[in-house]
Amino acid sequence: MSDSLEWLYLQEEDVIKAGALDLKACMQTIEEMFLLIGRGDYILGGPKRNDHGLMLWFNESEEFPNMPTAGPDRRFMSLISYLGGDFDVMGNKWYGSNIANTKKGLPRSIHTFTLNDKETGAPLSMMAGNLISSTRTGAVPGVFSKYLAANDARVLGAVGGGAINQSCVEAIVTAVSSLQKVVLYDINKDKGEEIARSMRDKLNIQVDAVDDIDDCVSQSDILSVATAGKVKPKINEESVKPGQLILLTGAADIMPKMYSQYRIVADLWSMHEKWLEDGLQRPEGVESIKSWAMSGDILEMVHNGEVDKESIDNFGDIINGHVTGRKDDDEVIIGIMGGLPTADVAWGYRVYQYALDQEIGIKLPLWDSSYLV
Ligand SMILES: NC(=O)c1ccc[n+]([C@@H]2O[C@H](COP(=O)([O-])OP(=O)(O)OC[C@H]3O[C@@H](n4cnc5c(N)ncnc54)[C@H](O)[C@@H]3O)[C@@H](O)[C@H]2O)c1
Question: What separation in angstroms does the CA of 177 have from each of 52, 107, 155, 333, 359?
Answer without folding.
Answer: 32, 31, 11, 20, 35
